[in-house]
């Protein structure tokens, strides 16, 4: 009986391993139209008796303004183009700051890690989810280009209440197509990403204006995002 259970567990583990590889490879080529995060938010709205809010329009990286990837790198992950999914320097800095009781930092979560979490996993803070996040981060860094990671990230990241991706954000909050967003618009969107359900790019307050100026300053030191062509 024990041998059968072990054999079955190995079979399940193998199936999950193969399916994870196949899903990552598939998303290298096809758009990501729906994510676990979108499902979770929609489920919350249904449970709370609210109208479902889901605004999402996939566009290619070439259809986005060049300032958009630069803005999110300035805000979220300035070493995105040089690391392999994990920014160990940022993790070390965050750990030291937290241990010393200093200003709380973001924790060193990279754009690759955020993409892995948003596209393949549920929300939460368990060790199991963090372990799977590291696994999927390794996979997308292995099978996807940096351009593809950025493209999926900017199409799937939450940018407001029920708003996912830069095109939906441009339409809902700026009344323009994504390609027409200005450099300041891109910086303002990036400024909301620590908590897009709390901070709005449509009606930014004093704190958001301050964040906007900080990100615009950092953008001057970020190189132009390389084209995939």
TrEMBL record:
UniProt-listed Pfam families: Transgly (PF00912)
Record keywords, A-Z: Cell inner membrane, Cell membrane, Cell shape, Cell wall biogenesis/degradation, Glycosyltransferase, Membrane, Peptidoglycan synthesis, Transferase, Transmembrane, Transmembrane helix
Presence of the UniProt keyword Glycosyltransferase in the record: yes
Subcellular location: Cell membrane
KW Mitochondrion (keyword) present: no
Full protein name: Biosynthetic peptidoglycan transglycosylase
GO molecular function: pentosyltransferase activity; peptidoglycan glycosyltransferase activity
Any one GO BP annotation for this protein: peptidoglycan biosynthetic process
Gene from which the chain derives: mtgA
Domain Glycosyl transferase family: 54-219
Function: Peptidoglycan polymerase that catalyzes glycan chain elongation from lipid-linked precursors.
InterPro entries hit by this protein: Glyco_trans_51, Lysozyme-like_dom_sf, PBP_transglycosylase, Pep_trsgly
Family: Belongs to the glycosyltransferase 51 family.
Annotated EC: 2.4.99.28
Catalyzed reaction equations: [GlcNAc-(1->4)-Mur2Ac(oyl-L-Ala-gamma-D-Glu-L-Lys-D-Ala-D-Ala)](n)-di-trans,octa-cis-undecaprenyl diphosphate + beta-D-GlcNAc-(1->4)-Mur2Ac(oyl-L-Ala-gamma-D-Glu-L-Lys-D-Ala-D-Ala)-di-trans,octa-cis-undecaprenyl diphosphate = [GlcNAc-(1->4)-Mur2Ac(oyl-L-Ala-gamma-D-Glu-L-Lys-D-Ala-D-Ala)](n+1)-di-trans,octa-cis-undecaprenyl diphosphate + di-trans,octa-cis-undecaprenyl diphosphate + H(+)
NCBIfam families the UniProt entry points to: mono_pep_trsgly (TIGR02070)
Native source organism of the sequence: Prevotella nigrescens CC14M
Pathway: Cell wall biogenesis; peptidoglycan biosynthesis
Signal peptide range in chain numbering: none
Gene Ontology CC annotation, any one: peptidoglycan-based cell wall
Bilayer topology annotation: Single-pass membrane protein
């Amino acid at each position: 009986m024990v041998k059968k259970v072990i054999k079955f567990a190995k079979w399940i583990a193998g199936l999950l391993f193969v399916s994870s590889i196949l899903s990552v490879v598939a998303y290298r080529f096809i758009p990501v139209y729906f994510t676990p995060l979108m499902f979770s938010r929609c489920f919350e709205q249904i449970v709370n008796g609210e109208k479902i809010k889901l605004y999402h329009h996939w566009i290619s990286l070439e259809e986005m303004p060049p300032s958009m990837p630069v803005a999110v790198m300035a805000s979220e992950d300035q070493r995105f183009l040089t690391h392999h999914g994990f920014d160990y320097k940022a993790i070390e800095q965050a750990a030291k700051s937290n241990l010393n009781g200093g200003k709380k930092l973001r924790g060193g979560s990279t754009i690759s890690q955020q993409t892995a979490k948003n596209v393949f996993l549920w929300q939460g803070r368990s060790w199991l989810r963090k372990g799977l996040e590291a696994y999927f981060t390794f996979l997308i860094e292995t099978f996807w280009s940096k351009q593809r990671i950025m493209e999926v990230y900017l199409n799937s990241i939450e940018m407001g209440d029920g708003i996912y991706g830069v095109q939906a954000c441009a339409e809902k909050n700026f009344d323009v197509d994504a390609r027409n967003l200005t450099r300041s618009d891109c910086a303002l969107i990036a400024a909301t990403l620590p908590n897009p359900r709390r901070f709005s790019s449509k009606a930014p307050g004093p704190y958001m204006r301050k964040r906007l100026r900080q990100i615009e300053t950092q953008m001057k030191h970020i190189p132009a995002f390389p084209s995939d062509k």
